[in-house]
Specification:
By secondary structure, the chain is of the alpha/beta class. It has helices at residues 8-12, 26-38, 56-65, 83-93, 107-112, 114-138, 141-146, 178-197, 219-229, 248-261, 278-292, 321-327, 335-348, 350-359; strands at residues 17-21, 42-47, 73-77, 97-100, 148-154, 201-206, 209-210, 233-236, 242-244, 246-247, 267-270, 275-277, 303-306. It is globular, with a radius of gyration of 20 Å.
Length: 373
């Protein structure tokens, strides 16, 4: 960053009780780890412990700090679809800040089973909003003035770009998949609860995240693990779909800034200045594997074209000017640095990848086909 990122403790100020939904997931887990490492806040981790949930990374942080689980990190095993359980969890947490990351997020899974995305991402967000609304009404004037609900969303709600242009906070919504449609609906609910009920909220829409501890069903871990195993590497369609890659720790920087210093009712787009085609990402990973496993080089010969994803958006790219100018955020990693670190991490943590895939009963196969090949 061109300017030093404020410390987590400084950003939080007097906020001592933080509720993170989806804190056993990929991005949520990164937020929880940052809060535990860099502040003295108590973190209430509301997570249904679904197929992609795992606490290993959080347990490692607690072990590093010599802290017992259940002291500053308190798991609330709750499904957001259960309104009564959500209300009870919010009452227990009594939070000064809510960071809402819980969501079904894999586009391919939304094609195979859209119903879970509707109930989790839309109904679940509604239940949380209602519980938080009641919570804010119980707060003292001073705590209510500092309170925020931060809703974390995706750039996919904006649809698909052509060769030019980037998404911004004023881009019209145009979701194309069951996943992005469910997230668009949840964004609208959050804004409606702000305008109608006065709920203090901040929204962020981010580009594709990557980094350590991501459940191995997304592109970068899938390619890394298949290349390391000498298995065919699936490349959807012509491989020229573009994504704006954002390293997860840079995203955490943005999330904490937006949650603590963002203007109530305002949205912020977060992108990593990392536009790459899927083919470029896959080729880069193969080149890195050539260095780690030269006997199996070149790994690029494993790249295999497969039928494209139904409704596959062509290009995403984000203009992060607002969050940069208003809050001082910039990514600290370029995509080349982030990819190198991520590939190395997955190669060193293949046992963890096998464990979480086995727990989820996921064999690494293709998901999301709604028509025969």
């Amino acid at each position: 960053m061109s300017q030093t990122m404020p410390s987590t403790a400084d950003l939080l100020g007097n906020r001592r009780r933080i509720l993170v939904t989806g804190g056993a997931g990929f991005i949520g887990g990164a937020v929880v780890r940052r809060l535990l490492r860099d502040s003295d806040a108590t973190v209430f981790n509301l997570d249904k412990m679904g197929y992609a949930s795992d606490l290993t990374s959080i347990q490692e942080v607690l072990a590093e700090q010599g802290e017992a689980d259940g002291v500053r990190h308190r798991l609330q095993c709750v499904d957001l679809k259960d309104a009564e359980a959500v209300d009870a969890a919010v009452r227990e947490a009594n939070p000064d800040l809510v960071m809402h990351l819980a969501a079904e997020s894999h586009v391919d899974r939304s094609i195979s089973g859209p119903g879970e995305f509707i109930s989790s991402n839309i109904t679940g967000t509604y239940n949380l909003l209602q519980a938080v609304r009641s919570h804010v009404e119980r707060l003292s004037e001073a705590r209510a003035a500092a309170f925020r609900l931060h809703h974390i969303s995706t750039d996919e709600v904006f649809g698909s770009l052509g060769a030019e242009g980037r998404f911004s906070e004023t881009t019209p919504y145009d979701p194309r998949s069951p996943y992005s449609a469910s997230k668009a609906a949840s964004d609208h609910l959050v804004q409606a609860w702000h305008h109608t009920f006065g709920l203090p909220v901040v929204l962020t829409n981010c580009s594709n995240n990557y980094g350590p501890w991501q459940f191995p069903e997304k592109l970068i871990p899938v390619v890394t693990l298949k290349a390391a195993a000498g298995e065919p590497i699936p490349l959807y369609g012509d491989g020229l779909n573009v994504r704006d890659w954002l390293y997860v720790e840079d995203h955490v920087d943005a999330l904490l800034l937006a949650a603590c210093r963002g203007q109530s009712g305002r949205s912020y787009c977060v992108g990593g200045h990392g536009e790459k085609t899927n083919k470029e990402v896959v080729t880069t990973i193969c080149n890195q594997l050539d260095q780690h496993h030269p006997n199996n080089a070149p790994h690029a010969h494993l790249i295999t074209r497969v039928i494209d994803r139904p409704g596959h958006d062509r290009r995403y790219a984000i203009d992060p000017t607002r969050i940069t100018e208003e809050l001082g955020w910039q990514p600290r990693h370029n995509v080349e640095q982030g990819l190198a670190a991520t590939v190395a991490w997955y190669l060193q943590h293949q046992d963890w990848c096998s464990k979480v895939r086995d727990q989820a009963n996921y064999d690494g196969g293709r998901l999301g086909l709604n028509r025969p090949q």
